[in-house]
Amino acid sequence: MKKISEVIKKKELKTRCHFEKWDEKSVFYASRKIFQEEFGNFGARNFILEKYIGQKLYVRPQNSVWSSELWLNREKLTQKINEELGQKEIKEIKIIL
User: Fold this and answer.
1) Assign residue 39 a region: left if phi > 0, alpha if psi is -120 to 50, beta otherwise?
2) I want to staple 46 with a disulfide (CB 3.0 to 4.6 A). Which of 6, 34, 52, 62 is the partner?
3) H/E/C letters for each residue in 27-63?
4) From CA 68, how far away is CA 23, in angstroms rounded?
């Protein structure tokens, strides 16, 4: 599967300013893909992507077990999502209980 940054034409990506932000839909797409790679199909279904505001991704785990799993892996997930998007778009993953 291609990265979302590869899907966008290279010409468009080059003209994109470094301060221009991805929209919520694109961030959710990349995040779901990474969650599925890291936790598998079953695990990915246990996380609800609530919103994306101010370079923070808000995620609601289904229970405390998945909340702990997200807490332990949040830095790695943030890095992989940013790699998928092709720039440092997400600074932090926030857990909503």
Assistant:
1) alpha
2) 62
3) HHHHHHHHHHHHHHHHHHCCEEEEEEECCEEEEEECC
4) 28
User: Tokens 């301060």 — which residue?
Assistant: 19
pLDDT per position as a tens digit, 11-41: 454 444 454 567 889 999 999 999 999 999 9
Q: Which tokens go with 36?
A: 């599925």
Separation of alpha carbons 43 and 47, rounded Å = 8
Q: In whole angstroms, what is the distance from residue 59 CA to residue 81 CA?
A: 14
Question: 85: phi > 0 → left, psi -120 to 50 → alpha, else beta; which?
Answer: alpha
